[in-house]
Amino acid sequence: xxxxxxxxxxxxxxxxxxxxxxxxxxxxxxxxxxxxxxxxxxxxxxxxxxxxxxxxxxxxxxxxxxxxxxxxxxxxxxxxxxxxxxxxxxxxxxxxxxxxxxxxxxxxxxxxxxxxxxxxxxxxxxxxxxxxxxxxxxxxxxxxxxxxxxxxxxxxxxxxxxxxxxxxxxxxxxxxxxxxxxxxxxxxxxxxxxxxxxxxxxxxxxxxxxxxxxxxxxxxxxxxxxxxxxxxxxxxxxxxx
Length: 241
Fold this sequence. Notes:
Strand 13 (156-160) and strand 14 (168-174) form a beta hairpin. The longest helix is centred in the first third of the chain and has 5 residues, at 7-11. The protein has one helix at 7-11, and strands at 2-5, 15-19, 22-30, 52-58, 63-64, 67-68, 73-84, 87-89, 93-97, 106-119, 127-128, 143-147, 156-160, 168-174, 179-181, 191-202, 205-207, 212-215, 223-237. The strands form three sheets. Strands 2, 3, 4, 5, 7, 8, 9, 10 and 12 form a nine-stranded antiparallel beta sheet that branches. Strands 1, 13, 14, 15, 16, 17, 18 and 19 form an eight-stranded antiparallel beta sheet that branches. Helices cover 2% and strands 49% of the residues. It folds into two domains: 2-145, Jelly Rolls; 151-237, Jelly Rolls (Sandwich). By secondary structure, it is mainly beta.
């Protein structure tokens, strides 16, 4: 399974949600994003085993309280800046948080902070702490962070070193019209591809910056082709469950 969503398609889904009296905006890319303020938000603990990807636009000086999710996820910080706990996050920072791993608060700086949430399975939304401590399953917490160096001349840059169970994140840069083969999705449990700059050519369509793909593990090694301005692509692969 390979799912591709262009930026323009996701932009059409823009919605505003009030979180602790703060107006967050969101774009849905793949699957259905959790809807703050709706029944069951952050409480249901099971659902469809389908990928879920969306962009969060957190407003300036807002605070997302510490929380966790039951599902493995990546967060990719693509605009603005702020902090996650004691960690400074600016473009391009990627955080992997395994299911039942608490993190936060997420504090937005003067320009707000925008980040993708990327999951290989459904999650109902933030389980805020300490209120939802009874839902937290302890014993397998895992958090890994990678930061892009900004060396634009490198063809590949590893942001999260590959592990035995397949966790991995890498930036790949291709010149105009160049083709390449990505690391094998089957070495983990599916992976996301986020267009950072340039464009990705897929089935006759051009996917511009902030477009997103999900490749399930049965897709294997996915081929990519850069557009006329080249391509900078972030690959984020989940560990095997």
